[in-house]
Amino acid sequence: MSLRPMGLPPVPEQTVRVARAAFPQGSLAIRVRDRLGEVFTDEPFAEAFGVRGAPGLSPGMLSLVTVLQFAENLTDRQAAAMAIRAIDWKYALGLELTDTGFDHSVLPRFRARLVGNGMERVVFDRLLEYCVDAGLVATGGKQRTDSTHVVSAVRDLNRLELAGESVRAALEALSVAAPDWLARAVDVPEFAHRYGPRVDSWKLPGSKVKRDQLSQVYGQDALRLCRAVWSPDAPAWLREIGAVDIMRQVLVQTYTVRTSSRGKEVVSKREADEDGVPPGHLRLASPYDTDARWSAKGDDLFWLGYKVHLTESCDNTPPEAEAEAEAEAEVRGRPNLITDVTTTLSTVPDVKATAPIQQQLADRGLPPAEHYLDSGYPSAELIETARSRGTVMVTPVLLDRSAQAKSHAGYDKSAFRIDWKARRVRCPQGNTSTGWHPVRQRERDAIVVEFAKTDCQACPVRPECTSARRGNRMLTLYPEHLHTVLAAARAEQKTKTWKDKYALRAGVEGTINQALDITGIRRARYRGLPKVRLQHAFSATAINVVRLDAHWTEHPLDRSRTSNLTRLSYRLTA
How far apart are CA 428 and CA 466, in angstroms? Predict the structure, then answer.
C-alpha cells in the first residue's frame, strides 16, 4: 500500500448545502472540519506507508474518523456506518452524499500500522501543537495529573484457568502453523477433547482434589508439548510462535518439575511459600494479553490490566498577561486541555511515572510552573529535580512513617538535631550518635545513624524512643540536600495556605470522569500495551476536541440527558 499525501479533500458543494440545512447550528463533526481540518493531514504518516503499490485511504481522513469514533464511543462497525449514513460525518471527511464509505476492517489495519511505526501519539501531538499556536495552551502556568485503572480486554483467569488456557492457545496456533507436525507429536483426539472448548471455571471440577488433579494434567501436557517443540528433530521456527513461548513461560511460573525418591518425574503446582512465584510485574496473567498485569489499590480495588495518567492544563496564565486586564479576560476563557497521556503496566507505581510525564511536557515545550499531583507521585529527588528545571511540584509528600510518628507519641526524626558538617546527630536527651554510615538502599543514597547501646539502655525515656530488640535507636536519613527539601515540603503542607492552593488538584478527577463517560477510558478496547497506549492517545484527543467544541460554542455540555450536577462538574473541569 502506498501513500500520496493529499490530506482531507475539499467538501463537495452538495454535501455543504445539505449539511448546513440539516445542521443549521452545526455539529461537533462539522466544527472539527471547519476549525481543525489542518490537523488531519497525511504528511505525518508518510513513514508508515510505502511509495509503491496501490494507494490506500488517506491516513489523515482515517485519523479524523478515529477521533470522531472515540468522541462518540463507537465500535469500528458503527464508525464505518457513520461515514456512510451521517451527513455531518460526510461533511467532515469531504465525501459526496452518494459515497459508499469503507469497510470497518480498514480501521484496525490503520491502528496496527500506527502501532507498528510508533505513531500512537501523532494526532494527539498535532492537535496540541495547534492549541499552542492558537494560544489555547501556554508554557508555564498550572497543570495537574492523576491516574486511574484500566481493565484489560481479556477475561480474568485464575491459576488453573491460565495453565489450561495457555496450553489451549498454543495448540490452536500449532494446529494452523504446523498441523502435520502436531498430529505426530501429540494425541490430537485426546487433546481436542480436553482443550477444544475454552477453559472455564464453570465447567471445571467442583472438588479441590479433582481440580488439583486437573492442574497436574495441564502441567504435564504443557511439559510434553514444550519438549516436543524443543526436540532436535522439530522445526526451529516452531519455538518462535508467540503462543508456544507464552505456554513455556506459564509452565515455568506455575509448576515445578521434580524427581521423586523412586526416580519418577513429578509435575506439581508451585506454592508461593515453598517454591516461590514470580513478582507481580513479571507474572503473566493471560495468554492473550502478555502485558496485562494484576494490581491492587487499597483494600477494595483489584484489576487485571493497565494504568493511565492524564495531565491537563488548569489556568495556564502566562506572566505577561497578568499585567493587562484585557489579556487576563482572554486567558480566563481558555479551556482546560489534556497536555499529556501516559499508559503503563498496572504494577508501575505512580512515582515511576512522574519523571517521564514531566519530560514529555518539556519536550513539547509545555513545562508547567506548578504541577499538582497526589501523594503517590513525589519523592525528594523528583521534587528537587523538578525545581531545578523551573517546576514546583504542589503535592503532599509522605510523612514520617516511623512507629513514633504514626502513634504521635515519642520521638520521631524531627526531634533529633543533625549536624551535617560534623556528621553527628544529637537526640532529645542530649546524647550524640556514635555511627554515621552512608549506604545504598533501594537504589538510593541514604545515611544510617546509630546511637550507642550504653546510652540508649540507660536512657530514662527509652520506651518513647525505641522498642528495637538491639536496644539502641537508629535513624535512616536522606543526604543533606534531599533531607532539607523533604523537611521543607512536610512543613509547608501543614499550612492553610498550601491546603487552599492544593485544592486545585481535585479538578482532574472530573477529567477522568469525563473521559470515562465519553470514551470509556477505564476499559481497554484492544490487547497489548502499545495498542492500549494508542487507545488512550485517541481518547485524550477526543476529550480535547469535545472541550474545544464546548469552548467554541460556549456550551459546557450539549447532552440533553445529562443532569445539571454533571453539567456543573464538566464546566468546572473544562
Answer: 13
How many other C-beta atoms are found inside a 10 Å radius of the C-beta of residue 200? Answer: 12
Neighbours of 416 (CB within 10 A): 18
Look at phi and psi of residue 135 and say left if phi exceeds 0, alpha if psi is from -120 to 50, else beta. Answer: left
Q: Which three cell numbers stand for residue 574?
A: 473544562
Residue 437 backbone dihedrals phi, psi, to 5 degrees: -125, 105
Cα–Cα distance, 150 to 292 (Å, whole number): 10
Phi-psi region for residue 373, left (φ > 0), alpha (ψ -120 to 50) or beta?
beta
CA distance 426 to 416: 6
State residue 477 phi and psi, 5-degree precision.
-120, 150
Check: pTM over 0.85? Answer yes or no: yes
Handedness of CA 190, 194, 198, 203 (dihedral sign): positive
For residues 472 and 466, is the Cβ–Cβ distance under 8 A?
yes
- Per residue in 43-97, pLDDT (tens digit) is 899 888 866 666 678 899 999 999 999 999 999 999 999 999 999 999 999 999 9
The CA distance from 171 to 153, in Å, is 22
Low-confidence ranges of the chain (pLDDT < 50): 316-332, 557-560
Contact 325, 273 (CB under 8 A): no
Nearest in space to 309 (alpha carbons), one of 280, 281, 348, 283: 348
**Is 530 in contact with 84 (CB distance < 8 Å)?**
no
DSSP string covering 386-431: HHHTT-EEE-PPPPP-SHHHHHT-S--GGGSEEETTTTEEE-TTS-
